[in-house]
Design brief:
The structure is a single chain. The protein has 212 residues and is mainly α. It has one domain. Helix content is 72%, strand content 0%. The longest helix is centred in the middle third of the chain and has 48 residues. The protein is rod-shaped and about 95 Å long. About 4% of the residues have low confidence.
């Protein structure tokens, strides 16, 4: 029963890491290919670029979509006003995107803690009590000798080590995905945001009709 408990804790932790990984990878977006596509749209059809950005929340597209939305509400093409509006908007939403991704990292850490807890519990249960010695008051030479079976694969730490490695690999992939997201946001601010601003200032982006 105790062995099942330790396995249950470790497997539950692994499941948490896997679920966090699946959610993190669901918003995976390659920057180089997306940059080429979006740059072309910003130069030819920025309104379509806005629609594309809105379709992929949780990526570097999200701050671009929010920037479009904010400048559309203002409805002005003055370069100074555009720049003073777009960049703070982009930065604020970008921070929110990264903070949202941190939730996946937190879940992965909790999962890793559960896996380690299961491993530690299995080690503690595998520790044998000290055998009584002849000078021990409780020593009984006539007591029956209990034969102990050779430990199998599942009675040792082997499975827990495998679970730990799998969970660690999953957590590592989430961390790498977060680093890639942060790099993509930095590059989008430097390379795509100026194209967005030009599309507004030069009149290629059509403001939506204002509600009466």
């Amino acid at each position: 029963m105790k062995a099942l408990l330790s396995y249950g804790i470790a497997l539950a932790g692994l499941a948490v890491v896997v679920l966090a990984l699946l959610k993190a990878m669901a918003t995976n977006l390659s920057y180089p290919g997306a940059k080429l596509m979006l740059t072309n749209l910003l130069r030819t059809n920025p309104n379509k670029a806005e629609a594309v950005c809105k379709s992929l929340p949780g990526t570097f597209f999200e701050p671009l979509a929010s920037t479009f939305n904010t400048i559309a509400q203002i409805g002005m093409r003055d370069p100074n006003i555009v720049i003073q509006t777009t960049r703070p908007t982009f930065d604020g939403i970008a921070k929110g995107v990264i903070q949202g991704f941190n939730a996946h990292m937190t879940k992965a850490k909790l999962g890793m803690m559960a896996v380690v807890g299961g491993l530690v519990l299995s080690v503690l249960m595998a520790t044998k009590p000290a055998e009584p010695k002849p000078d021990d008051p409780n020593y009984d030479p006539t007591a029956d000798v209990v034969e102990v079976e050779e430990p199998g694969f599942f009675s040792g730490p082997g499975p827990f080590i495998i679970i730990f490695l799998l969970a660690g690999a999953g957590a590592g992939m989430i961390y790498a995905r977060k680093a890639d997201l942060e790099r993509s946001i930095v590059r989008a601010r430097a390379e795509l945001l100026p194209e967005l601003e030009k599309s507004i200032i030069e009149g290629r982006y059509q403001f939506p009709p204002k509600k009466a």
